Sequence to fold (1104 residues):
Amino acid sequence: MLQGWVIVLTSFAYLCLLFAIAFYGDRRADRGRSIIANPYIYSLSLAVYATAWTFYGSVGRAAADGIGFLPIYLGPTLMAVLWWMCLRKIIRISKVNRITSLADFVASRYGKSALLAGLVTVIAVLGILPYISLQLKAISNSFTILVQYPAIEMPDKQRSVAVLQDTAFYVAMILAGFTIAFGTRELDAAERHEGMVAAVAFESLVKLLAFVAVGAFVTFGMFDGLADLFTRARADPRIEPLMTPFDDFSNYASWTWLTVLSMLAIMFLPRQFQLAVIENVDEKHLRTAVWLFPLYMLAINVFVIPIAFGGLLSFPKGGVDADTFVLTLPMAEQHTALALLAFVGGLSAATGMVIVETIALSTMVCNDLVMPALLRSRRLRLNERQDLSSLLLDIRRWAIVVIIMLGYLYFRLAGEAYALVSIGLISFAAVAQFGPAILGGIYWKGGTRAGALAGLSAGFVIWAYTLLLPAFARSQWLPQSLLTEGPFGIALLKPLELFGLAGLDQITHAMIWSMLFNIGLYIGVSLTSRQSVVEHGQATLFVDVFTKTREPSSFWRGTASTRELRILVGRFLGPERAQEQFAALARERSLRSLEDLPGDAECVHFAERLLAGAVGASSARVLIASVVEEEPLGIEEVMNILDETSHVIAYSHQLEEKSRELEAATTGLRAANERLTELDRMKDDFISTVSHELRTPLTSIRALSEILHDNPDLDRAQRVRFLGIVIKESERLTRLINQVLDLAKIESGKAQWHNSELDLRDIIDDALAATRGLFEEKNVALATQLAADVPRLVGDRDRLMQVMLNLISNAVKFCAPDSGRVRVSMHRQGDCVQVDVGDNGIGISAENQRIVFEKFRQVGDTLTDRPQGTGLGLPICRQIINHFGGRLWVESRLGEGSTFSFTLPLDPRASDDKLAA
Amino acid sequence: MRKPGIDQQRLIATFILGGVLFNYPILSLFNTSSSLLGIPVLYVYVFLAWGFVIGLVAWIAERPR
Amino acid sequence: MAKRVLIADDEPNIVLSLEFLLVQAGYEVATAATGEATLDTARRIHPDLILLDVMLPRKNGFEVCQTVRADPQLSATKIVMLTAKGRSTEIAKGLALGADAYVTKPFGTRELVDTVRTLIGP
Fold:
């Protein structure tokens, strides 16, 4: 006799043990000593694939058609062979982009589309409901049967019980409670649940152990080994045909389609994606998983047929549902402990599935369905709430309860009419719809958001029509005529024989049509629609994840205040966590404190990734947009974007023209960039030259000062001579600094000009008067010829004086003493006035005539009177004359003297001409 | 994996091999009522082929590097 | 016998101060103001060391340095480069061409004399 309370207590003890493992796993993870960071735990956790369906349903299926249950496990084996290529790619993409769920992955690939994220979430939730109902059904049935022990009675399908007397309802409630405890203890930025993974891995061991124990008991305890069992089975006319199940070609077709279906399911069931991708610690673990996971599948399936045949042989009268053989065979043999172990194994298989699946789904519902809606609704003013992490957790908790209760509802509405495996396959077919969009998305850059939306929607609609609808019809919730005659009597639209395609089993039929439309529309619409820039960027990022190592390009070019970013992230992750993360970023950039962190594009992108971890890519984008101020783009960035953009645009014929223009613009920008780089180099040279010019006098000053300092007893004459040099060099230095600054001011347009109406004659007279000393010193003759008809003009008196002084003193400087002659003349030349300053000095060779106007380029025999010139006088003169719209040039022949001339426009309007600078 | 290129090719070849082994027409060769050591040949074949594919993958993926 | 130093610089005031310093330190000093003059003088007097400015007119310091190094008669001559452009590329270039030391302007008088002393002794 097995009391109900013993079973309940055992179940609770088992669930508490799981919880303890999970708790321990989380504690270790918090301390940075993960217990799941090894390939065996990873492989075992993937075995969450084996649910109550496997534990109870496979036997039921095997009892009906022999080996037909196996494609569900052969498919994953085949897929696992390719994992090192495709799953590793998905894992890498998810790590790089901080993907938090299946919906997030699809949305992120197609330009962070919130609509797509929502669609994937809806498909996943609706698609998985039958699967969850399957687990509820399995647990409640197994409990109902076990409680009758030692009698073996099937639960009465026809008897309708009130919800509150329904075991399945309580099972659902308890599972919801445990799932909440497992999955929503705290908010993790990466949506990782180490404790849960550890618990699931443990469950995988339990269910394998329980199943193998029952299998071994049946094979070797009830029968005399496999040979005996099969020999007796062969003698049974009910079982004999199951040995050769392929009696016509459609069996092979079903077999192949089931293989394909389960290949897609192992990749895209939300719980598999959660454990294989999101919870993956190290992609190297795949190396072990690719063979260990299939090996687990093999091990748990070895005894399916022996148990099925054993059951058929043991219950020859029928009346015992084959889906329950795993439990009822030990019961029939009065093996209490084994029966209880079988029950715990089934419980284990079912709870593992429900917990992981609902956690994965609740993340999707919260991040991709509820949050985007809440964030967009202004009425809730969510943007202003201080701490949202608790709100996020609440949403997830409610999502878990709602999903499990919907699963229960499905069980009440449609579950009873089907065997376990048939219910599960409906879910498989739903998640298989993700295949084209995801696999296409990681290998084909051309897939567009519109294509993914079209393919997914079409596949989903056909799935619902050909699989979900018939399930409700069979359960009497919809009229049977829908199946037999088609809607409104249209035979072509019969859900089980769509467009007249008959003769296939329901799953094959649904898969053919949904995949045909899904893949067809995905490719077709992708080829006729265009990607946005963000989409193109994401597509490249996904497809080239192994070849491009750079960080995902953020399309934020703006900046934001670090404080605002921190507060924003803090509202979702909690203030301390946000503080920690940003502090880590500051440390990474070797900044002393958080306050030094600039709110630049990288920081914004960092914040977006953190948020994406908590609320998904599309919501994160909306949130970040609220605090970021976009900025005008720099040349380099424009060029990068143009580079990326030009690829996107290239494949659209009508925009090819645009692409060419952009290319030209890019070339232009590139040329501008080169010119800037060249200017930069010239500036560098200039600084180096200025530095040289400044250091030279400084060298003499320092050396002589040190000599004077170290030799106090130097004789007076020498001391005076040295001091004289120091003073002269200091003056030279001062002059140089002044002129450099002067030139810099004029060149940068910051010089001040005091313009007034003036008579150029006065200026020339003043300049000559000021330089009279030079003429007398060298005994140089002066001749002037200043025309009287020159009108007054507008200019800066001091600046023009500076030009005159410079030209006159230069002329005197290069004249020979005593025989030198300087001639200064002024006359009107059209609407200009021209001034010439000529000398009969050494002259300037033709190639040097251009050079004299360059900075720091002195010509002539500088050795003789080196310290007098700075090499900046003429460049400054030319700048001044140019400023007033005039021209300064030199005519000269070596040995015969030179004439420096300049013109100034008489029209005062010309002096406003800003071209001069 | 020692040389990613060759190992990936081996894995893809194994995948194709598995696809062939678990499908028509190879499968139909074993769809007979004869038995091996009392066990129907179809079951023996499928599980042996399955184990073989797993072994092959394990060998490719876990060879000492 | 006193060691001979050749000062090659086109700034008369720098030459003046260097000359004073090296004479005071007990060296025999010759001067040159252009690259060509530097080579002529060097070939004539075989100095133990040349203090060589980079920015010399008519053959710059680098060219002079190269020529001196190529002349077997002057193989014992040490070369100290002087430059007012403190760029690291110039320093590297000078050392690559066979200069023994590098001094940037403005220099400290003591360090300069020390450099000379380390290379050729008192």
The longest strand of chain A covers residues 821-829.
